[in-house]
Design brief:
The chain is built from ten helices and 107 strands. The chain has 1458 residues and is mainly beta. Strand 26 and strand 27 form a beta hairpin. It is extended, with a radius of gyration of 54 Å. It starts with a helix and ends with a strand.
C-alpha cells in the first residue's frame, strides 16, 4: 500500500459513508489507523537576517495613518521576527494604534482603547470611564478606583483630581433673619436630629414676632427649607426634651419675663402651637433646664428662683402643675466652704452626670464662686426630694457648661470665675479640682469633638467686622485644645464655615462618625451653614503614609457646600506613579503581550461618602516589542501567511491606523530571521462536512447521545507541513471562538458523545506549519432531541449523619450523607423539624444542594404546610438543647423524588463556643510624672493610689470574677486579688501607699501593673477565655535637702567643712544610695568660680565637703534632676552655704590679739521618754508578732524652736544581741515637735540580758550641737509552761530546773574557794608572775594562759564563744582586761587539786592547792578547746571553761568577759 493509501486508511476508521462502506471495514480501519501519525518533513538551511525596512533605513518614523514596507525574500520561511515601537512623550500621541498586515481587516497588532487609554496618554480609569467613584469603608485603609499604565512606561506628566463628597451633602439654608438661639433634636423620631432655631423678630408678613424654625434632612432630598412656627412673645432660650414619652423630642422655650416655659409638642407634621407652663411669678424665674429626673420616660423641668430655691416640676398626666419638688439652697457663707447660713442667690443651674443612675443638679451661687451638687432622690415611701452631696466646686459663678474634658465619663465644669476670668473644674475621685485663668472670650465657648477624632476641644467664635457683603469673609471659629488648666491660649485651628458666625452647635446628624457643624451667620443674607469637617487621606504606594492629605468642610455641591478636592500642586505625583511601575504591582497583559500595571490607591476617611477621581492625565514615553498576535500566535506566523513563490524580494506592508492624524512614533530594531524554502504557499482545501452512521458494535462503546461526521480529502493533508484538523463546536446560540478549538484530529472524521439536548454546529479547518490554515468549513448542524420523560426517582441517600457543629455559638447542625448513585441525580433537598415526620411534601426544604455537594450546616427548621400547600407553621431558628429530626431527599434532573422519608434523630445543637473576655486597667493617683516624655501617674508615701479596671465577659455576668493584679518593678514584685462587681468593675485602693511598701517590697521607679483574669466556664459549660491588661505608674521618693549650718567659719588656714543633710522617710533612706550633688565653690559677689565637683551622700543621709577657699565666699550644692534618678523628688534643687573668712588678727606691740567670733548658741538637749516599764521579752520569738514585746517605743521631743537634725548611735553592752532603729541613723524633728522612735530586737539575736546606750546628737545651722544619752536595760524570760529554752544554753536565761541550779551553785562555790586558797598560798613567793605560769622556753611566741580566779569570769559550762567576733567589737565591752603573759609556757598547763601534809601538825588536814603540771609535750594548738576565727583572733578555753583570746598583733592573752 502506498503512503497515500495509508493516510486515507487512517482517515476513516470505525465510520462508513451512508451507502459505500461496511461496518466491518469501518471497525478494522478504526482500530488499526489510530496508531499511525502523519509523515512530516521540514525545511533546513542556513538562516538569514533582515534588519532594515524597504526604505533602506534601520528605523521608520510613522506620522498619521501610514504604511511601512518590509522587504521579504520570496520562497523563504520566516523563523523569527520582531521590531520595536518607540513613542516619546514630547511627540503628539497617535491615540489608539492598529497594525494590519496586508490590509485584510485582521489586526496583527494593536495598542490602546478601553481601559488602556491611548499610546503615550492615559485618561481612562480601569472602568473605562473618565470619572471614577468609590465609597471606602470608614476608619480603615481601603482600596478605591484604579487606572492602568504600561509597566515599561516612563512617566512624564501625571495629573489627577481627587475629591471627597460625604453622604450628608452639606448645605447653606437661608433663615431670613438673625438667629437668637439654636439647638438640635430628633423632632420627627426618624433617628436623625433636626436643627431647631429661634428668631425673635421673624416677620412672616403680618408683623414681627418670635418664631421657632425646623430644618430637616433626608438622604434623598438633602436639607429642607426652614419650617416656621409662631411661639410665645417672651421666649428667649431653646430647650428640648420628650414631654409626653412618644420618642419625639418636644421644644421648650424659657420665658423668664413671665416666669414660665412655653412647650411645643412634636407631631407628624412638625411642632404644635405652644402651651404655657407657669412656674413662678413674673420676674422671679432664674435658670431652667429639661431632664427626666424621675426616670419615668417623660421630661421634667428643673429651675431656680430669685429667692434661692432649687425647684422641679415633674411631668404627670395632668401636665407640669401637679407635682413640685423644691428646696431652699443655703448660702455658702465663707465663699469656699460647704453650705450654711441663709438662702443664697442662684446664678446658674445645670444637669451634670457624676454618678451612674443618679440625676444631679449643679447649683452656682451668685458672687460666691461656689457650686453645690444636689441629687434627686426617692425614699422608701416613694417621696421625692433634693439631697445635697458632699461634692462641691469653687471659683465658678455663671455661664457654666458641663464638658467631659478628660474622657473619663463624668462631667467637668467650665464657666466664668467670680470677678474676672474663667475656671476649669475637673472631677476626680477626690471631688472637683478648680484651676482659674484670666482668659476671657467674647462669645461663650462651644465644647465638642469637632472632627470626630475623639478629642474634646473648645470652639471659640469670632464674629469679625461686618461690611454687609457675604462675598468678603469676616470672622472665624478657632479650635483650641483643652486641659485641666482650661482652654489653651494658642495653637488654634481656624475654621471658616460662614461669614460673620454668631452661634454654633456640633451634632453628628447622619451618624457617620463625623459631626456636622451647624453655624448661624451671614451678613447680607442670614443663613445656617451645615456640613461636617472631613479629612481624606490617599496612599498611592501602600505604605499607609498618605501622599494626599486634605481636610475641610465637605458637601456634594447641591446645596452650597462643595466637595473637598486635591490636585498635585507640588508636582510630586509623576515620581510617585513612576515608583509604582514595578514587578510587585498587580498587572494585566493585553492580547498583544504588553504588560499594564494596575495602580489602585488606598483611602482613609472617618465618615460615609464617596472618593471621586477625575481629570486623569498620565503622559509617558514607551518602547515596546511587537511580536505577539492573539490569532496567529506571533508576528512570524503573520508574515509567513504573506509568503509568495519565486525568488527575489517582495514588499509586505505594515498598515498603521491611528485615531489621531497628527500622532507620531518610531519603528526600530527590526529583526527578521528566515531560511530558504517556503513550507506552503497555497492554502489547503476547505473541508466539507458529512454526517456519518455509527455501526452497532461501535455504538456500544460510546455514551449516548452521540454523533459522527467526516469530511473530504483536502489537497494538503498528505503534505509534509500538515499538522492536524481543528474541530470547533458551538451549542445553540453561543459564539464561535477560533482561538480555542473544541478538539483536534489526525484523520478526516470525528465522533462526539454524551451530548445534552440542544442544537450543535461543527466546523473544521486544516492546520499546517507556520500557521498556514485552510478556510473554515461550513457548519454541520445537528440537533439532539431530549429523552422521553423520566418518572423514576433517584436512589435515596445513604449514611445520613446529623451532628452538632463543634466550636460554634449554638443554633447550627451539620448534615452529611453519601449520594445514592443514580446517574440522573441533580440535587438534594434538606428538611429539619423538631418532631419526627415521614412525608417530605408536608414541609418546605431548608436547603437545596446540587449533586456532588453532600454536606451542609443548617440553622432553621422547615415550614410546615397545610392541605392546601399554605404555610401552617413557619420554621424557626434551631434551638439549643432541643431534639431535632432531619431528612435528605434526592431529586433527579427532571424533579423526580421520593416523598416518603425516614428521619435521623433526635439530635441537639449546642453552644460550645468560647466566651471572649476583655479587660482594661488603670491607676489613679493625685499627681503625674513625665517618664521619657510619657505622663504616668505617680505616688509617694502618704498618698493614695487606686488600681481599677473593667472586665467585660460579653453576654455573661461580670460579677464575682477574680482578677489577679501583679505589681513589679526592676527588682520586686507582689500580687493582690480583686473581685469584680455587677458591672465588671474591680479596684484596689491604698489610702496610704506606705501600706503596700512596708508589707511587701519597696517599689521604686516605674511600677508595671498587670491585671489578669484566668478565665472560667459558664453554667452551660462554655469556656470563658482569659484576658489581661497592663498599665504603669511611678513610685517616687520625696526628700528634702538643707544645710546643717547655713554658714561655715573658715579657720586660719582658710579651711572648713560644709555639711548637707538629706531628709526622707527613714524607711527610704537606703534607697538614696550614692546620690550625688554638683557643687560650685566661688564668690558670688565677685562672680568668681574657683572650683567645681561632685559630693556623694553617705549612708546616714549626710554630705560633707572639705573646702579651702582664701578670703571666704560660698559653696552651692545643686541636685541635677536630669542626671539623677527620675523617681527621686528632691526639694529644693539647690542649697548655698556661706564661707566666712578666718577671724581678723590685730597686732598690739608684738602680742597677737585674735578677735574671736561670737559663739553660736547651744541647742537644748532632746527629751527621750521610753516609758517606765522594764523592757522584757520572751525567748520564744514566735510570740513577738502577737505582743510586739521585742519593740520599745520611745518619744523624742525637740524643746528647741527650730528644726534639728539628729544623729542616733546605738552601742550594745552585750555581744550577740542586735537592736535596730526604725528611723535609721539620722532623722530630723521640727521645732517643738515629737518624733516616735521604735527600737526593735531582731529575731536572729542571742538571748543575753544586757543594756543598750543611746546617744542622740542634735545639730542645726548656727547652733552648737547638744548630746542626749540614755541607757536602756532589757532582759529575756523563759516561755511559761516549762518550754525548753534555745539549744545554745549559754546564750539564754536561767534554767527552769531549781535542782540543777542548786547543784551548780555548790560546785561553783567549791571551785572558787579552791582557787582563792591556791592564790593565797602562792602570794608570798618571790617568783614573778611569769614564773608562776610558765617554764623555760623564752623562744615561744606566747602560750595559753592558766585558769586563775583573779578577774576571771567563767561562763556557763556549755558556753561557746561566737565565731568571727572582731577585736573592735570585743573592745566595745569596756576597758581591756589586764594581759596575762604566757611567754615562757609551751604547752597548756594542767590545773590539779591535791592534799599536802603539814610537818608541824601531826594531824593531816586536807588542803586544796593548785599545782601546775606539764600535761604533755604536745602543742596546745592541737587541743579541741583551741581555734582561730576568720579575723585571725586566737581563742582557747581552759579547764574552768573560761575563754581567753589574743589578737593577731598581740603577744599576751586576755580574759574574755561577757
Amino acid at each position: 500500500m502506498s503512503a497515500r493509501g495509508e493516510r486515507e486508511s487512517m482517515k476513516h476508521p470505525s465510520v462508513e459513508p451512508a451507502a459505500s462502506r461496511t461496518a466491518g471495514y469501518l471497525l478494522v480501519v478504526l482500530m488499526l489507523g489510530l496508531s499511525f501519525s502523519p509523515l512530516i518533513s521540514t525545511v533546513s538551511a542556513n538562516p538569514s537576517s533582515i534588519t532594515i525596512f524597504s526604505s533602506g533605513n534601520s528605523s521608520e518614523t510613522v506620522i498619521g495613518n501610514t504604511t511601512v514596507d518590509l522587504a521579504l525574500e520570496r520562497n523563504t520561511t520566516i523563523t523569527d521576527s520582531s521590531f520595536e515601537l518607540r513613542y516619546l512623550s514630547s511627540d503628539p500621541s497617535p491615540g489608539i494604534v492598529e497594525m494590519d498586515i496586508g490590509n485584510d481587516g485582521l489586526l496583527e497588532w494593536s495598542f490602546g482603547g478601553n481601559r488602556y487609554g491611548e499610546l503615550g496618554s492615559q485618561t481612562r480609569f480601569s472602568t473605562n470611564g473618565s470619572i471614577a467613584s468609590n465609597n471606602p469603608t470608614k476608619n480603615t485603609w481601603a482600596s478605591i478606583w484604579s487606572f492602568d499604565l504600561p509597566s515599561e512606561a516612563n512617566v512624564d506628566l501625571a495629573e489627577l483630581n481627587i475629591s471627597y463628597a460625604p453622604e450628608m451633602g452639606g448645605g447653606v439654608v437661608p433663615t431670613g433673619g438673625a438667629i437668637d438661639d439654636m439647638t438640635v433634636a430628633d423632632v420627627d423620631n426618624d433617628g436623625q436630629s433636626e436643627v431647631v432655631i429661634l428668631d425673635r423678630d421673624k416677620d412672616p408678613g403680618n408683623g414681627s414676632h418670635p418664631h421657632i424654625g425646623i430644618i430637616d434632612w433626608t438622604l434623598a432630598s438633602g436639607f429642607s427649607p426652614v419650617s416656621w412656627t409662631w411661639t410665645c412673645a417672651g421666649g428667649t432660650e431653646l430647650m428640648t426634651g420628650d414631654a409626653n414619652a412618644d420618642s419625639r423630642m418636644d421644644v421648650y422655650l424659657i420665658d423668664a419675663q413671665n416666669g414660665s416655659v412655653c412647650l411645643h409638642l412634636a407631631n407628624n407634621t412638625g411642632i404644635a402651637p405652644f402651651a404655657n407652663i407657669s412656674l413662678t411669678s413674673a420676674g422671679s424665674l432664674g435658670d431652667v433646664y429639661v431632664d427626666d429626673i424621675d426616670a419615668d420616660g417623660s421630661s421634667d423641668l428643673v429651675y431656680s428662683t430669685s429667692d434661692g430655691t432649687l425647684c422641679s416640676t415633674l411631668r404627670r398626666s395632668g401636665g407640669y402643675t401637679s407635682l413640685f419638688v423644691n428646696i431652699t439652697v443655703p448660702s455658702n457663707s465663707s465663699g469656699m466652704g460647704g453650705p450654711g447660713g441663709s438662702s443664697t442667690s442662684i446664678s446658674d443651674i445645670l444637669s451634670v452626670n457624676l454618678w451612674s443612675g443618679v440625676k444631679t443638679a449643679a447649683v452656682a451661687e451668685d458672687m460666691e464662686g461656689y457650686v453645690s451638687f444636689w441629687n434627686f432622690s426617692t425614699n422608701q415611701q416613694g417621696a421625692f426630694s433634693w439631697v445635697i452631696s458632699m461634692v462641691n466646686a469653687t471659683n465658678l459663678e455663671d455661664n457654666i457648661q458641663a464638658v467631659d474634658i478628660d474622657g473619663d465619663g463624668d462631667d467637668d465644669l467650665y464657666g466664668n470665675a467670680p470677678m474676672s476670668g474663667t475656671t476649669m473644674a475637673v472631677f476626680t475621685n477626690a471631688g472637683y479640682q478648680s484651676t482659674q485663668s484670666m482668659a476671657f472670650f467674647a462669645n461663650e465657648p462651644v465644647f465638642a469633638d469637632w472632627d470626630g477624632s475623639g478629642t474634646m476641644t473648645a470652639l471659640l467664635i469670632e464674629s469679625g467686622t461686618s461690611d454687609g457683603s457675604d462675598v468678603t469673609f469676616t470672622g472665624d471659629i478657632a479650635a483650641r485644645s483643652l486641659s485641666a488648666s482650661g482652654i489653651a491660649s494658642s495653637g488654634s485651628i481656624l475654621l471658616e464655615p460662614i461669614t460673620a458666625p454668631t452661634r454654633m452647635v456640633v451634632e453628628d446628624i447622619d451618624g457617620d462618625g463625623v459631626p456636622e457643624h451647624i453655624v448661624a451667620g451671614g451678613e447680607a443674607t442670614h443663613s445656617i451653614f451645615i456640613a461636617g469637617h472631613h479629612n481624606l487621606l490617599v496612599d498611592f504606594d501602600g505604605d499607609t503614609t498618605p501622599e494626599v492629605n486634605i481636610s475641610g468642610y465637605a458637601g456634594n455641591g447641591s446645596q452650597g457646600v462643595d466637595e473637598i478636592e486635591w490636585m498635585d500642586t507640588m508636582g510630586s505625583l509623576p515620581s510617585i506613579i513612576q515608583s509604582e511601575l514595578t514587578a510587585s504591582t498587580p498587572s494585566i497583559t493585553d492580547f498583544y503581550g504588553i504588560d499594564h500595571s494596575t495602580l489602585q490607591p488606598d483611602a482613609y476617611v472617618r465618615g460615609e461618602g464617596a472618593v471621586l477621581g477625575s481629570d486623569l492625565l498620565m503622559t509617558y514615553s514607551l518602547s515596546t516589542r511587537v511580536d505577539t498576535n492573539p490569532g496567529l500566535g506571533n508576528l512570524t506566523n503573520a508574515l509567513n501567511r504573506e509568503m509568495v513563490a519565486g525568488s527575489g524580494p517582495f514588499d509586505v506592508g505594515l498598515v498603521f491606523n491611528m485615531t489621531s492624524s497628527s500622532g507620531q512614533f518610531t519603528l526600530q530594531n527590526l529583526a527578521i530571521t528566515h531560511i530558504p524554502g517556503a513550507t506552503s504557499i497555497d492554502l489547503p482545501t476547505e473541508p466539507v462536512l458529512i454526517q456519518m452512521n455509527i455501526s452497532e458494535d461501535m455504538a456500544l462503546q460510546l455514551q449516548p447521545p452521540f454523533i459522527a461526521f467526516e469530511w473530504n480529502n483536502t489537497s494538503s493533508d498528505g503534505e509534509s507541513t500538515f499538522m492536524m484538523y481543528e474541530i470547533h463546536r458551538t451549542m445553540d446560540n453561543s459564539p464561535l471562538n477560533l482561538l480555542t478549538p473544541y478538539s483536534t484530529s489526525q484523520g478526516s472524521f470525528f465522533m462526539d458523545q454524551s451530548l445534552q439536548p440542544g442544537t450543535y454546529r461543527y466546523y473544521v479547518r486544516a492546520m499546517h506549519q507556520n500557521s498556514i490554515t485552510s478556510n473554515l468549513s461550513s457548519p454541520l448542524t445537528i440537533t439532539i432531541d431530549p429523552p422521553p420523560p423520566d418518572t423514576t426517582p433517584p436512589d435515596p441517600v445513604t449514611n445520613l449523619t446529623v451532628l452538632d457543629v463543634p466550636g460554634d455559638e449554638g443554633g447550627h447542625l451539620v448534615i452529611s450523607w453519601d449520594d445514592g448513585g443514580s446517574d440522573d441525580l441533580h440535587h438534594h433537598l434538606v428538611y429539619v423539624d423538631m418532631v419526627q415526620f415521614t412525608n417530605a411534601s408536608t414541609r418546605v426544604h431548608v436547603a437545596n444542594l446540587t449533586a456532588g455537594n453532600s454536606s451542609i450546616v443548617v440553622n432553621m427548621t422547615s415550614d410546615v404546610l397545610d392541605n392546601t400547600g399554605g404555610v401552617q407553621q413557619s420554621g424557626v431558628s434551631i434551638m439549643d438543647n432541643t431534639d431535632h429530626y432531619v431528612a435528605v431527599v434526592a431529586v433527579d434532573i427532571l424533579g423526580n423524588f421520593n416523598e416518603t422519608v425516614v428521619t435521623v434523630g433526635p439530635v441537639r445543637a449546642l453552644n460550645n463556643s468560647n466566651v471572649i473576655s476583655s479587660m482594661t486597667v488603670e491607676t489613679t493617683t493625685s499627681s503625674t510624672l513625665d517618664v521619657d516624655g510619657l505622663p504616668l501617674s505617680s505616688v509617694t508615701r502618704g498618698e493614695s493610689i487606686t488600681i481599677s479596671g473593667l472586665l467585660d465577659l460579653d453576654t455573661e455576668t461580670d460579677a464575682g470574677r477574680t482578677v489577679q493584679i501583679d505589681l513589679s518593678d526592676d527588682a520586686h514584685s507582689t500580687q493582690v486579688i480583686a473581685v469584680t462587681d455587677t458591672t465588671g468593675a474591680f479596684s484596689v485602693t491604698y489610702s496610704d501607699w506606705s501600706t503596700l511598701l512596708d508589707s511587701t517590697s519597696r517599689f521604686v521607679g516605674v511600677v508595671n501593673v498587670s491585671a489578669t483574669y484566668a478565665g472560667g466556664s459558664t453554667s452551660m459549660q462554655q469556656v470563658i477565655l482569659g484576658s489581661s491588661a497592663t498599665s504603669a505608674f511611678v513610685s517616687t521618693v520625696t526628700a528634702s535637702v538643707s544645710a546643717v549650718q547655713s554658714s561655715v567659719q573658715l579657720d586660719s588656714d582658710n579651711q572648713g567643712t560644709a555639711r548637707l543633710q538629706v531628709t526622707t522617710d527613714s524607711r527610704d533612706l537606703s534607697l538614696l544610695g550614692a546620690i550625688s550633688f554638683d557643687w560650685t565653690l566661688g564668690n558670688a559677689t565677685e562672680s568668681i568660680i574657683s572650683s567645681t565637683g561632685i559630693s556623694v551622700l553617705d549612708q546616714t543621709g549626710f554630705i560633707e565637703e572639705a573646702v579651702d577657699y582664701p578670703g571666704g565666699g560660698e559653696i552651692e550644692f545643686v541636685y541635677d534632676e536630669n542626671s539623677r534618678p527620675f523617681w527621686l523628688l528632691m526639694t529644693p534643687s539647690s542649697v548655698s552655704i556661706d564661707l566666712h573668712p578666718p577671724p581678723t588678727q590685730t597686732d598690739t606691740g608684738g602680742d597677737t590679739n585674735v578677735t574671736e567670733p561670737t559663739p553660736d548658741p547651744l541647742l537644748l538637749e532632746l527629751n527621750v521618754n521610753c516609758g517606765s516599764q522594764a523592757w522584757t521579752m520572751s525567748v520564744n520569738t514566735s510570740l513577738w508578732s502577737g505582743d510586739d514585746s521585742n519593740q520599745l517605743e520611745c518619744t523624742v521631743t525637740n524643746p528647741n524652736q527650730n528644726i534639728v537634725y539628729v544623729d542616733l548611735d546605738l552601742e550594745m553592752n552585750v555581744i550577740g544581741v542586735e537592736i535596730e532603729s526604725d528611723l535609721g541613723g539620722s532623722f530630723s524633728i521640727q521645732g517643738g515637735a515629737d518624733q516616735i522612735l521604735i527600737l526593735e530586737v531582731q529575731d536572729d539575736t542571742q538571748f543575753r540580758d544586757g543594756s543598750v546606750d543611746l546617744s542622740l546628737t542634735a545639730s542645726a545651722p548656727d547652733y552648737q550641737d547638744s548630746v542626749t544619752t540614755l541607757t536602756i536595760q532589757f532582759q529575756f524570760t523563759e516561755e511559761t509552761g516549762g518550754s525548753t529554752s534555745p539549744s545554745n544554753s549559754s546564750e539564754g536565761g536561767a534554767s527552769s530546773d531549781n535542782n540543777l541550779v542548786l547543784i551548780g551553785g555548790i560546785v561553783g562555790a567549791i571551785l572558787v574557794l579552791g582557787l582563792v586558797g591556791a592564790i593565797m598560798l602562792r602570794s608570798g613567793s618571790d617568783e614573778d608572775e611569769e614564773d608562776l605560769f610558765s617554764d623555760d622556753g623564752d623562744d615561744e611566741v606566747g602560750a595559753l594562759p592558766m585558769a586563775v580566779s583573779g578577774g576571771a569570769k567563767a561562763t556557763r559550762a556549755e558556753a561557746d564563744i561566737p565565731k568571727g567576733v572582731p577585736l573592735d567589737e570585743l573592745m566595745k565591752q569596756g576597758s581591756r582586761p589586764s594581759p596575762v603573759s604566757m611567754a615562757k609556757s609551751k604547752t597548756p598547763p594542767v590545773v590539779t587539786t591535791e592534799s599536802k601534809e603539814e610537818p608541824d601538825n601531826e594531824e593531816e588536814e586536807p588542803s586544796d592547792e593548785i599545782e601546775v603540771e606539764e600535761a604533755s609535750e604536745d602543742d596546745y594548738t592541737d587541743s579541741d578547746n583551741y581555734h582561730v576565727d576568720d579575723d585571725g583572733t586566737e581563742w582557747w578555753k581552759d579547764e574552768l571553761d573560761v575563754w581567753w583570746w589574743r589578737g593577731p598583733d598581740d603577744e599576751d592573752w586576755s580574759e574574755y568577759t561577757e
